[in-house]
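Worked example 3 (structure in, sequence out).
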């Protein structure tokens, strides 16, 4: 008897968007993942002060945190193409302003108002291709009756996010070591000009058109009042914790490399984090469906804590790289879990907003981690700055426990729990 075999999830994804989409969407997120570390590296080179560089990176991250949700709202209202093309033009100008303001001369203060303003604007308008491609997958696959492939798409995007947030900063370190501290920002500009418009104009952008032609800010209703903020806040705090781990580890490995006599190799050491993190993120779609989101989040956070504690043991770079392999393994599944929950339970007309909000949490956390770890490292070296990552890991575990309470527990015994698909809808 002949059996009709279903195409693989990846084949379904490929048939939806074509081959070119995969490298384009991967490269299109590098302008975001390289920005904070690019600013950090550029300011370090001009000031030789980790604290000043950390402040500049934090200001950039605050800009991302402010601008990303606005970009998401704009894409929900007017479509991704318009939002991305406008942000590309302004972003290139802002990064050029960072380069000009940071080259004011040796007697100028490292953190001039012009530099901080340019970095803040660059953060606000950086193209949000990572969260926007998630919107395309969710709405595109669902519209064609391929909901079964959404989980695979989320795992794939989780891997791309992990690789982007890890390899982006690593690329900054490599390019800076070879060509100078300003070179990564020029590479970032080139990528933005070439790849982001390509991504914006790709036919898959049609999947992210305003849902049903409805303006998400219209109908006389205030947009933010339509979201139940308790679960969203927990998801955002989880992303903030992940970002803080990323940022603090980037700074910690840079300081560790300097202290062990290998200056400039911090980015290469840090890249080890992305190997297991990305692989683990891709594996989540194959995990048993009996493992709930809260179980995956909490269990992985429990594994993360002792892995981070190993960071005090290495004395040479290769040992630190091995430790980061262990640290990365539980982070990827948590990131995928958070995005998957948001994607499953967010109405289509608010999907861009929620996805960019969560992505902003990662970037803001990265900036916070860079800043705090830099301050601590200036006072106590790498061994002191490692406590920042450990504390962020504990916070991520606490968020996992809180997610279980907020996500699944009814408000009171008399009030039935809302259906899972409406968890981000208002609780009536």
């Amino acid at each position: 008897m002949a059996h009709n075999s279903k195409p693989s999830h990846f084949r379904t994804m490929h048939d939806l968007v074509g081959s070119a989409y995969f490298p384009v969407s991967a490269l299109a997120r590098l302008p975001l993942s390289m920005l904070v570390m690019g600013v950090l590296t550029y300011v370090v080179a001009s000031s030789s002060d980790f604290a000043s560089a950390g402040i500049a990176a934090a200001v950039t991250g605050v800009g991302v945190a402010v601008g990303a949700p606005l970009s998401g709202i704009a894409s929900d209202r007017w479509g991704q193409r318009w939002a991305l093309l406008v942000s590309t033009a302004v972003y290139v100008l802002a990064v050029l302003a960072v380069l000009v303001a940071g080259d004011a001369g040796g007697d100028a203060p490292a953190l001039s108002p012009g530099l901080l303003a340019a970095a803040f604007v660059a953060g606000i308008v950086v193209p949000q291709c990572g969260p926007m491609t998630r919107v395309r997958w969710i709405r595109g696959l669902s519209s064609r009756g391929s909901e079964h492939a959404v989980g695979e798409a989320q795992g794939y995007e989780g891997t791309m996010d992990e690789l982007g947030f890890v390899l982006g900063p690593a690329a900054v370190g490599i390019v800076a070591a070879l060509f100078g501290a300003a070179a990564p920002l020029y590479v970032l500009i080139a990528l933005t000009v070439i790849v982001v418009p390509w991504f914006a104009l790709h036919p898959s952008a049609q999947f992210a058109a305003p849902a049903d032609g409805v303006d998400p800010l219209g109908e006389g209703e205030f947009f933010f009042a339509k979201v139940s903020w308790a679960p969203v806040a927990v998801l955002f705090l989880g992303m903030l914790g992940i970002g803080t781990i990323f940022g603090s580890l980037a700074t910690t490995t840079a300081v560790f490399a300097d202290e062990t006599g290998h200056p400039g190799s911090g980015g290469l050491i840090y890249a080890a984090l992305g190997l297991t993190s990305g692989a683990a993120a891709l594996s989540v779609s194959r995990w048993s469906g009996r493992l709930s989101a809260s179980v995956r989040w909490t269990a992985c956070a429990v594994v993360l804590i002792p892995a981070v504690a190993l960071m005090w043991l290495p004395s040479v770079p290769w040992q630190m790289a091995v430790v980061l392999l262990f640290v990365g393994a539980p982070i990827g599944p948590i990131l995928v879990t958070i995005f998957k929950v948001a994607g499953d339970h967010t109405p289509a007309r608010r999907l861009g907003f929620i996805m960019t909000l969560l992505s902003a949490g990662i970037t803001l956390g990265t900036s916070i981690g860079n800043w705090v770890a830099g301050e601590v490292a200036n006072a106590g070296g790498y061994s002191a700055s490692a406590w920042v990552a450990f504390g962020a890991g504990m916070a991520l575990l606490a968020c996992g426990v809180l997610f279980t309470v907020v996500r699944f527990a009814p408000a009171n015994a008399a009030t039935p729990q809302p259906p899972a698909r409406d968890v981000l809808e208002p609780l009536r």
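Notes: Residues 1-5, 213-225, 408-428 have pLDDT under 50 and may be disordered. The chain has one domain: 20-422.
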